[in-house]
Queue: 2 jobs
Job 1
Amino acid sequence: MKKEQPIGVFDSGLGGLTVVKSLIEQMPDEDIIYFGDTARVPYGSRSSETIQTYACQDVEFLLQYQVKAVVIACNTADSMARTLIEERYDLPVVGVVGPAAQKAVAQTANGKIGVIGTKATVNSGAYEKAVKAIDPFMRVFSRACPLLVPLVENGRFQRNDKVVRIILDEYLEPLHRENIDTLVLGCTHYPLLKEAVQACLPDVNIISSGEASTDTLRELLTRHNLLNDTKERGEHRYFVSDDAATFTENAEIFLGRSLDGAVQCITL
Amino acid sequence: MKKEQPIGVFDSGLGGLTVVKSLIEQMPDEDIIYFGDTARVPYGSRSSETIQTYACQDVEFLLQYQVKAVVIACNTADSMARTLIEERYDLPVVGVVGPAAQKAVAQTANGKIGVIGTKATVNSGAYEKAVKAIDPFMRVFSRACPLLVPLVENGRFQRNDKVVRIILDEYLEPLHRENIDTLVLGCTHYPLLKEAVQACLPDVNIISSGEASTDTLRELLTRHNLLNDTKERGEHRYFVSDDAATFTENAEIFLGRSLDGAVQCITL
């Protein structure tokens, strides 16, 4: 493994770009290969077998580019397919669940952690397991929020959007009642909703799974002397499995900047 | 072709069950094979090439069961792939767009027809073309409503649901402003929203594409002496490409009754 090799990142679609955003901010020298499986998005409502099949195909696509590490920038794929990916492929894998769980345990004061995510992520119990593995005295309250991804993908995430507010109030009310002091945004689409969520839960500390993942990856690469330190701005390449035009159109809201590389549509 | 052969119906997921509902009501003797492509739902936001590939695979699955006709119970697949399916396969194909367009032209008084559907259906211009082919003096006003499918699939379609009301008002307001007197529900999920839509547009005549499709199929089978008249209640078999459990759980709201056959999960 050489430090010049790119980092591979995959997600079911657009959401993983929020992870790319923090990768670019924190490790600007790294080359990045991104794959968004837009022909089969969303993963969040599919069965575990299907998600595992899709996630392995995504990793195999990235392996063609000699990536030095893979970031699973999708909470659903990380929850359902991480163990299988680690067993099957011989390269460092960083997910989003583990790092966010660690950060939540470190930051909670009352030991009550909330998690919101897709149906598949929440049903997998992945966050609960990850938190309890670090500290079995922690209590985790999870809530599936299946309407948030479609809302975000249709440009509705502003804190003053009436629909967003009603839906968030419904989803978050049971977590508020449990008196959580920390909430994990367990889906890479949700950082866009951060302000709206904060408005519903003003006293709660909000953790974005993507940012936590970037911290963990940087530590890992540093420890193994694999951090790219060429001091040249990294190259970023984007691949999707369907409809490059719509991906390009929507990428900016997730990336926080316009896309700095061409998007290529490939068949898996 | 024999009258005892089943009718094949396919959709990207659950929505096509509203078409099965009217098939069962109008032709109770017919055997039905239903396929819902739940591993790759939704079709409505994908590219035309991808939708064409998926739709042909769906038809090929149904052909294994010696179906006497295929119903494309998905406006998106019908809009994007109908011509290709008709060219490639030698069997009668009934869609949803053509029949609904005919009904709309027959029923409008002021010649102003509204159409709501997925992004792919609306962008294809299929309804506009179908309506103008019948009567070029008609005016068609279309609106993509990408949030309606996720809302319905999450059980939100009641006319008193606040979120449904806000979203429908936003989507329908431009059609109302055009003074349409007839509205086609151009997505097989939308019949569940019929009451809510009617509440927003109380004076507009609403046409469900699935019901129109069933009328056309019945005429076609009658004309070719292919209507099953055994006077025995037909058998209904359901196949999906992912997660039979969730499909079974949600089927009742689309079918208006509990599922009368087992659901089998297959790999395409």
Job 2
Amino acid sequence: MQVEFWYEFASTYSYPAAMRVEAAAKEAGVTLCWRPFLLAPIFGAQGWNDSPFNIYPAKGKYMWRDMARICEAAGLQLKEPVRFPQNGLKAARLALLGQDEDWGAAFTRRVYLANFAEQKDISDEAVLADILGSLGLDAQALLARSGEQANKDRLRAQTEEAIARGVFGAPSFLVGDELFWGNDRLEAALEWARR
Amino acid sequence: MQVEFWYEFASTYSYPAAMRVEAAAKEAGVTLCWRPFLLAPIFGAQGWNDSPFNIYPAKGKYMWRDMARICEAAGLQLKEPVRFPQNGLKAARLALLGQDEDWGAAFTRRVYLANFAEQKDISDEAVLADILGSLGLDAQALLARSGEQANKDRLRAQTEEAIARGVFGAPSFLVGDELFWGNDRLEAALEWARR
């Protein structure tokens, strides 16, 4: 079976997950689908207009320390983002296009690095254009396509699908109806997919 | 270094943690301290008057499924509790006495089994007395001592200590100032303690 990796660019724990999910799935012999979505509508429905890591300071303080340990163990850079959470809407619309065109994985990893390792503003179209260009892609054409109504609607529908399938946070992994939440559940999701 | 295991009897993920923490610490050669505390004052300060797993239904649904997978993998029974969350106040006051008297670990495990495997009401003094009796202890004397003002105050102080040291959920592990949250962080906490 395949595993679906559901991620949001503002999500801290999605960063180490995004950096290792492809290699881990390959090693497990499991097909991987990249599924960008938005957390804001999900959090908004719970009455949160900010990250729960900002709303609940003790949880937020712990998360940054936990992320530092995880990134250090994984050999990943971690620097305080230019703001938290960042607005990942435009990046998610681009990743949605890339999902069908085989550059989505590489684009996704570069956006996470820009957010959590390079202190770049990932809501800035110039930053996203640089990333697309570095992958040998036509940045302006992709930015234009990503902003078309059909693509906006598709990202909205993908987020609705996430909610309908029980997703409430990121990263999440789905193996059919079986939901796994959190970077630390990747191995369990892959094991489930191999059954 | 030692690892402190901070737990609340109403907490679902504290159940598998409580059942495995002693053996895991022993294998790692790390001294273990049992630290019962109460989540209600912590949740109350965040504006929650119920478990977040009840307040946020998608998260609650996932948690029960995740617990079922974890307990199955660990060979632990899991049955829907008589209510969720249960009131673990009296059990925590007893566990606090046991923490000094070497029956705390066994008592703690039996209370978790009563809550999550045996569908018993752990706020019922008769249930707690049965558990104490099964450990060869003088149940009535311990119940009386556990309800004395000094012991009530001590549990309150222990909860205040948890908050002061950054604890916001259960189970939590502390190695000095280093905080680890969740059953799935036990191994990381033990590794930290061995450094």
